[in-house]
Amino acid sequence: MDVQGMLSGKQEQGWQSQANCMGVDPDLFFPERGASTREAKEVCRGCVVQADCLEYALDNGEKFGIWGGMSERERRRLRRARALERRAIAAAAS
């Protein structure tokens, strides 16, 4: 599902109505391979629900596009870092 569809569709969660990307061309958040993500990330930069958007993408395994100001590659790195942190905490607790 694309950003606009998720934000305006049946999956309404409240935070979406405050998103900076409402009304912005969704193609901006799904650039062609190798194209710049700078403009999309700029839209996200000052968004009051940026963290909510990022967590939504992480929780739902969004594989494409810019969510919460991060590309899929950046979200993958964040997921790995969080997993390593959880493992370290679990190992320290045992």
Overview of this protein structure:
- The chain has one domain.
- Helices cover 49% and strands 0% of the residues.
- It is globular.
- It has four helices and no strands.
- It is an all-alpha fold.
- The model has no long low-confidence stretch (mean pLDDT 89).
Total helices: the number is: 4
Q: DSSP strand (E) fraction?
A: under 5%
Task: Please tell me how large the radius of gyration is.
Answer: 15 Å
What count of structural domains? 1
- The chain-level structural class is mainly alpha
Mean pLDDT rating: 89
Uncertain stretches of 5 or more adjacent residues:
none
State the end-to-end distance. Answer: 41 Å
Give the tally of β-strands.
Answer: 0
The best one-word shape is globular
Report helical residue fraction. Answer: 40-55%
SSE order in H/E notation?
HHHH
Task: Supply the key terms.
single chain; globular; mainly alpha; 94 residues
Summarize the topology.
Layout: H1 3-8, H2 38-45, H3 50-59, H4 72-93
Summarize the structure.
It is built from 4 helices and no strands.
